[in-house]
Amino acid sequence: MKVRGRAVRPRDAGGDRPHVVIIGGGFGGLEAAKALAGRPVRVTLIDRSNHHLFQPLLYQVAMAGLSPTEVAIPIRSVLRNKDNVHTVLGNVAAVDLEGRRVDLDDGESFDFDYLVIAAGARPAYFGQEHWRAHAPPLKSVEDATEIRREVLLAFERAERMANDLQRRKKLTLAIVGGGPTGVELAGALVELSQSILSGDFRRVQTQEVRVVLIEGGDRLLSGMSEASSREAKLALEAMGVEIILNRMARDIDERGVHLDDRIVEAETIVWAAGVRASALAESIDVPKDQAGRIIVRHDCSLPNHPNAFAIGDIARFDTEDGPLPGVSPVAMQQGRYVARWILRTVEGRSTKPFRYRDKGTMATIGRRRAVADVLGVTMTGYPAWLAWLFVHLFFLVGFKNRVFVLLQWIGAYVFESRGARLITFNDRKQRSETPPRRFNAGPRSVETAS
Amino acid sequence: MKVRGRAVRPRDAGGDRPHVVIIGGGFGGLEAAKALAGRPVRVTLIDRSNHHLFQPLLYQVAMAGLSPTEVAIPIRSVLRNKDNVHTVLGNVAAVDLEGRRVDLDDGESFDFDYLVIAAGARPAYFGQEHWRAHAPPLKSVEDATEIRREVLLAFERAERMANDLQRRKKLTLAIVGGGPTGVELAGALVELSQSILSGDFRRVQTQEVRVVLIEGGDRLLSGMSEASSREAKLALEAMGVEIILNRMARDIDERGVHLDDRIVEAETIVWAAGVRASALAESIDVPKDQAGRIIVRHDCSLPNHPNAFAIGDIARFDTEDGPLPGVSPVAMQQGRYVARWILRTVEGRSTKPFRYRDKGTMATIGRRRAVADVLGVTMTGYPAWLAWLFVHLFFLVGFKNRVFVLLQWIGAYVFESRGARLITFNDRKQRSETPPRRFNAGPRSVETAS
Fold first, then answer.
1. ipTM
2. Which residues of A does the annotation mark as catalytic?
């Protein structure tokens, strides 16, 4: 280490500063690392990916409104010049709480004095993992570009079809899950099709596009107020979205989404229904809830391991009003809390239990409407959308990203176009030899251009 | 067709306007389509990809300076509202010059009155296609993000290595081919490593990065003046690039690039050495040169087929000074020429042979230097770079893209950061389960964080 400070709780032979290992560079982990930067600890932040992802705007990448580089930022550059923070691109294979060691799957190990587990959540298919092939989730940059490709290819395929009925089927898009992701996707999907289908395509007409939003519960946005749920439903229906409530997906296959009483035939399906704690939680021998989340104490620590913490979506934190929701403000506040806890303990001081300060929740419905519950009040329409825009830009990490996202939004209004509409393929052979398989698999409509 | 005009050369039973089929949405094909838009012809533009790619800036995507959406634009949106132009995403399987028909590989066919073949070039490995696995080319958006991933992963791998010698080997990057792409890549690579390695990494030092540029001929930029070649070599060497001239690659494998007298051991290799005409040319029974290019007449038409044209990189156009180079101004001028030829012929008038107006060539060397040959004068340094920036922004398709690329460049100066540094993976299983194979394959340096 370049800078040596008072090693209050020396563990290493060299009398070094205490070592904090953080697993995960999402909202929680990154906040913890930032709060520990420049303080008398050493920090190692381990993430599987090299970038921090601003998940609340990921649906915009899937809908070609933003480019991946506008919602993701390299973790290294966020922690640039923080000399006591070391970033590692790696995959954690095991956590040894007793031995205070984290093992990566490539053999490297890190001893720790304090551990912050912030590995987040992953999509869950209720044990039906084969649904994933038909209904990709929206959790990573790669997921978003995959959905973007599927949606744009559906339009391209439809454009090649002279038969109206076939075309309508190609143009049906189903979203499973009526939470914020599902609602925001549905709104953006309608606007994407309205903005690009009007001028760019010849056969496909805007009104042929059918967006179906399927929710198992009795209202959309169940984490928000009933007024917001109602408003979201009305606004989406006014945009032409079909909303199906109280219906669980029983099966998902190439035909579409099978419900109890019908089948929603859809070419493109997006999964926005369920998440589970990251698989890392399974390998750690502590009590968990049925979503796989680590049940933490009131200071975010693990039972019997006061020096190990779980925060954000991988943790279950119970309050009088039930468990805290899996949203970014919870993870960020927990990250800052845990950092403060560690720093105070290093100084020999104690810390009060964690308290979540709920500043409100919001969801956007298309480009000029949103719903927001702030301090018990429900905002709707354009004012709520402006509040949504402000909050999201404010929390977007990286000044340059903020400027660019704002410019993209302004550009979307002025030019009414979507710049990020690239169809890119993964497999080099695939794209250099033939168009992708699914693109070829459509009906072979032989026609001449007469 | 919505708008019916005078069918001067009716071919279809319906007395429709003449039908022009354009294969390829690159510089040549797109210019032709734009010049035919709104004129008394029907146009079908067929491309394998949904976007027009501004290839001269593709190296910036590979070097994380620009995002893919800033150098690529959907063809549909360029031709938006051009009612007589129909865009088709598809792969041409065969061209029947006699029968005047183009067949796609999914069974669809298009009859044509006029055909413009503008399918471009593809990377060529001198018959050693297995080199591609070790030395990816830089022709598509996917190529660029693959190179970006490889380079960034090389840095990440090196950061995990305590052994200085191992680390240096990981940090050697070789570029095969000293044309504009190779020269621009080499300069950008040095700047990428200087800008991000200084603050973001802990172990890896800027001076450890080694960039080797290998050219088979006796000078860089052989298409430009000798003064420009000299200046480019001096400028790159001043930046620390090793330049090897007069050496052909004899083999490329996991060790590196094998030359006659040595092996350049490199972790990352980029292929910028050779191109061949698109594979489509092979299937067309007309005379070709040894680069597979269709030899065209002085009006860009195919011998014995006055209604079929080949333009841009897929065509060989001979002049008194030798064949025209494979650069975008040639393709664009040919595209406009062919469009004019078709429109005049429809009107019953004749057209003079094609003449290329060479307005100059340029290549950038890093962020503030360039070389340019304009009207027989060689410009160098900062003035040449400003000229380069102006010309490239001017020809970048799409107003919004231009603004954003300019802003990115300004941002790169102000913030000295690269926003587009995402490592994204292709295979979903791969990234959700483990880090990519090549990342794991490195030496397993077991170390503790003590």
1. 0.78
2. 184
